[in-house]
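Sorry to interrupt, but I need a hand with the structure work. Please put the record directly below this note.
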Amino acid sequence: MDKENKEDLEFMRLLNKHPNIRARFESLLMIAEADQSYGDRADDIEMELRKEVTKIGQETLENWAIVKERQKAREMSDDSSVKKHGKKKFTGTQPLE
């Protein structure tokens, strides 16, 4: 298998892992193929491209945050110094002066 084919397979694996981002790329490709539903004027196409790029950015950031949250949770669960459960120690009522 050549390098380009491996890169294509890796790219497809990543896209399949994030279906919402894949859908955005498909939209961009439809625009690039001059799909008539997006309009005939350059201004219309530019507007659609801006919308899609903004959506890709938002969804990528959301996916990044989810992955980071899972990584941090995994790190904390692996850290034995983090106390997960336990009873609070009651030191008693402090005397008033």
